[in-house]
Amino acid sequence: MVKRAVVVGAGIGGLATAGALLNRGWSVTVLERADGIAGGGTALGMWPEAMSTLDELNVGAHVRAHAVLSYGGTILDPHGDVLARIPASRRAHLVSRVRLLHALHEALPHGTVQWASPVRSIDDLPESDLVVGADGIHSAVRSALWDRRAQRPLGTVAFRGVVDGDVGSVTETWGEGALFGITPSSDGLANWFACLRADMSPPPGSDAAAELARHFSTWHPAVAAIVSRLSNDGIDRRELFDVALPHPYVLATVALVGDAAHAMAPNLGRGACESLIDAVVLASAVSAAPDVPTGLQRYDRARRRRTQRIVRAARTLNSIATARRGLGLRNGAMRLLLGGRSSRGAGDHGTAHAAGSRPTMSA
Fold first, then answer.
1. Domain range spanning residue 73?
2. Which one of 109, 161, 281, 349 is most buried, by most CB atoms within 10 A?
3. Left (φ > 0), alpha (ψ -120 to 50) or beta: where does 326 sit?
């Protein structure tokens, strides 16, 4: 008898979970409140482990064909001096979020995703053997069955977008209470991201482009060139939170994946990657186990401790990268730990670190 799953949410984690379950013979319905895949979105860094997962979902070749492969790099200070160099052996494929979403969706049978289908109550879900909450940081599934207070503010605000033109590599620049990153993306675009402490950030509804230019225009030329080209209609602004769930990610025949379970600060570039891995591990566990609850327990044991460690590490790095005090100690420690040296002008040439191998808010 074919087992049935209902997946709530058609983001990266939800689409990947649907694909992984379908590949193992399940019948799957995905419920998504939006009426389709949203356009836009910045670049995501796909680590080798995530690329292996995409191969299992039969979309790896498509992603590689449209991604930029990034190697090694540098973390800078606002003058363009090198704080740290990352070995060229560290690599990641950079692909736009919307292209990845389309690839995952197109790999599913037509009609798998029911668009414009918000879930207002768990009791209203179709009958199934398995329910997967893949509905993001504001998860309705988590709020209904787990902890409404799992979200924690990071005290920072992120701004992200893309501009036309190619950049050859990835940079991340750390200043006082702020950071600014530039990465290649697919489709001939350059991805940028900024993070400021909340009390330094322009408020919602303000002229964000002008405020970002005011803050970052005195940084090294690679940053100044990007902020001089920003327009408000291309800026995504969001206060940052993570999720610290003090409970297992599973309850009877219900499981959480991706941001619903372990939303994390974007500084380690792991969020999308961990969502993909969740999907394949969950599908494998429930398909191999004698029953769904046993399979979900195996999934939880495989994923909860690992992802919670990454949540903690990403939160710490978000705080360090946007520190307002002790910058000399921070910068000196980065040079010592990661082999940086003072080298003025690196920011002029876009020397970079590999997204996914070190801090990057692009994923």
1. 4-349
2. 161
3. left
CATH code at 252?
3.50.50.60
| 354 falls within a domain | no
Task: Name the residue type at position 251.
Answer: L
pTM, two decimal places: 0.92
Domain count, the chain: 1
Domain assignment present for 69: yes
Instruction: Please check whether residue 355 lies inside any domain of the structure.
Output: no
Residue 1 has pLDDT above 90, yes or no: no
The answer to whether position 363 is within a domain reads no
pLDDT tens for 36-58 read 998 766 889 999 999 999 999 99
Could you report the per-residue pLDDT of 2-45, keeping only the tens digit for each? Answer: 999 999 999 999 999 999 999 999 999 999 999 999 876 688 99
DSSP 95-160: EEHHHHHHHHHHTSPTTSEESS-----GGGSPP-SEEEE---TT-HHHHHHS-TT-EEEEEEEEEE
- Report d(CA 227, CA 206) in Å as an integer: 16
